[in-house]
Design goal:
By secondary structure, the chain is an alpha/beta fold. It has three helices and seven strands. Strands 1-3-2-4-5-6-7 form a seven-stranded mixed beta barrel.
Length: 135
């Protein structure tokens, strides 16, 4: 499976992760035609280095903005500030959007792949190929 992302959105996700090095950053990914063109950064309500959650009211507002801008919800992103960017058991357990991609960002300078994407469905994890588009 493939997830396509516009380079600028990919960079913004990485910058968000670097701007919050002590906690998992998080947000939503949106676009059209299956191509991610926008990120919607969110506040990690848990303020945790190992877990994230978006408060229901903020999540509602972000989805409203997507609808107003006529964008599709295409994924979720968060960072793993100090560990490998693969889904944790908690990430797998709480994955609530089986049709969207889960992007996990590593802000670590030595990370071989700073952004990885996964499909998480019924407890099964499949890594997705990320295609970066220059638009």
């Amino acid at each position: 499976m493939v997830s396509e992302c516009v380079r600028e959105s990919w960079k913004k996700c990485c910058n968000h992760a670097r701007s919050e090095p002590g906690v998992e950053c998080c947000g939503l990914l949106a676009g059209a035609g299956g191509v991610i063109t926008r990120i919607f950064p969110a506040k990690n309500a848990l303020a945790s280095p190992t877990a994230y959650d978006v408060a229901p009211q903020e999540l509602f507002q972000l989805f409203r903005r997507m609808r107003e801008e006529e964008l599709e919800h295409l994924g979720i992103y968060h960072s793993h500030p100090a560990t490998e960017n693969v889904p944790s058991p908690r990430d797998i357990e709480l994955a609530a959007y089986p049709d969207e991609a889960y992007f996990i960002i590593s802000p670590l300078p030595a990370a071989p792949h700073p952004v990885r994407a996964f499909s998480i469905r019924d407890g099964r994890v499949e890594e997705l190929e990320i295609v970066i588009a220059d638009v």
